[in-house]
Task: structure prediction
Amino acid sequence: MDVSNILASHAAKFQSVTVEKETPLDVDTGFLTVTDLTPIDEDSYKSNLEEYLQVTARDGIQALVAALYGLPTQPSPDGPLAQLPPPTTQLPRAKPLPKPKPPTKWERFAAAKGIQKRVREKKVWDEERQEWVNRWGKDGKNKEKEEQWIHEVKANAPVDHDPVKAARDARTSRVAKNERQQLQNHARAQTAASGRDERKKDIERTLATTRMSTASMGRFDKKLDGEKKLRGVKRKFEATETSVEQEKQASLAVLSKLDGDVKRTRKEKGAGDDALNVRKAIRNVSKGRGGVALAREANKKGARGKRGGKR
Amino acid sequence: MLRTVKPRNARSKRALEAREAKEVEDVRTAIFVKGTHTGEILNGVMKELMALKRPDAISFSKKNTVHPFEDASSLEFWAGKNDASMFLLGQSTKKRPAGLIVARTFDSRLLDMCELGVDNFVSMAEFKTPKSTPGHKPMMHFASELFDTHPRFVQVKSLLMDFFNGEVIDSICLPGLEHVISVSIAPAPSLQTANPILGDSQEDDVQNLPKIHIRTYTVKLLPSGTRVPRVELTEMGPFLDLSLRRHQAADPEMWKAAMRRPKLKKQDLEKGLGKKKKNLEVDEMGDLRGRVHIAKQDLNKLQTRKMKGLKSMPVEEDGSSEESEQEDDPRQKKRKRD
Result:
């Protein structure tokens, strides 16, 4: 039985979709990229550039499409969805890797006990009304007790028992407890990150600031036992008699700072003040005209002032 | 420098959390900025590239004086403020006409950039052919061996891949593959990858570096006899001829930090990724199977369960014991056999 004809015809069917190249093409299905490492053929390049580029591109893309159609697929309403493997080429990240957060107290307990996390749905079935209502939020079921118009009260309840107030207090206390636990988790995560000494320094710094933040700047306040003495800034005074050279240097330095040289201000733009955005400040004051215009105006005003100006 | 925003409501908190770093990142948003003077060509180029990059593209409407090769602080400020990490700056000067600078940031600091000069540009409007739907992921094709060997072309390939196709996705709709961006290099026989005698003579060889051709085609999948369709390309989209100019390579420390990968999770290991772990294999059912190797056991010293009832009885008296021993022996033997 001669099957060579059948085999030949079968192979011929695949001919139109296979691509033969000297070096195998590097297909990265994860990024939908194909790299063709064969050197450029100069003759066909020079003869007809566009056609040559299109032909090489077609071959490359045929190989990529063949690889993509070879991947496992899932059906979907828009067509087959190919499951892409993770990419082979490595591209740099845009942001650094996130640091893993330490688990919270509940997360540690749940991990130890093997409790799975279950996300609750927002709607809950209300038997009385026979419909789905919100568990919390607008018209939430958690506020049901407070919004009822009639309440069952126990026989031994005190006279001034307000069931609405009791229900509302219970809900607010639950909310407060949850917020407190979140803060504790946050503080625990922070302390895990920073060391004990840093925290101590932080606390001492805050304490020093609070002691100074009184009406008298901390000077006439009673000191508690155990508080350390506040360190002040020591002022340094120059000697009354300095040499002529030193005085000359000091005066020249002051003069040079006062000069207002435009070039120097522009050079110092880089080392700006962290608290003040110099660029924005100049733009604001000069009404968009820029630093040069400001300097010009200042000089003009100065010159006018010297001459006597409007006076 | 940027003031840290404290979230005041749940919506702003969600927006802030969306900007934080994630293990698997989103697409890089690109900012298109025009310099003090851009010609008609550059305007067209930037408009078309933005059309290809939509919706992850922000275009600045005002012209800005920015010289990234001297001072990258403006780029870093814009990257932090807009939560974007790629830049395309267009600047045309007499010395460098039609210059396009492609820059990438990492952690709000400049990572690397490359200046390309646009020599020839054919816009999308000049091809009266149907275009691809904006927002679809393009396929990319790089055609030259220089993309693997020459460091400048490796950088260009990495930048272009990051610009058009940087997002890692796990599945793609096959009929949705609509367009291809093909990048090829002109032949240049005089180019050597790295001349060991002269060392790295970098920018002197800028004129010798071959040009880059970027072509965009739409893909038509024609039925062939088999499951794989036959690919036919039709011209669409911008045709760009670029020449390489200046560049700034990434600082090796920053590059190393940017290339750090997250630790592989269990599912990836089961898929067979990561370091080839010995004694682990995934069988046909898709389950992870392991082999445990234990030392050779001495069966004589095997610790089995003790059956108290089967224990041999202790000997009582001499007289009766001899007979009883003889009788006992076959009994004992029987028990032992049991």
Remarks:
- Residues 193-204, 319-338 of chain B have pLDDT under 50 and may be disordered.
- Residues 96 and 117 of chain B are 8 Å apart (CA to CA).
- Residues 26-249 of chain B form a domain with the Rossmann fold fold (CATH 3.40.50.10480).
- The two ends of chain B are 87 Å apart (CA to CA).
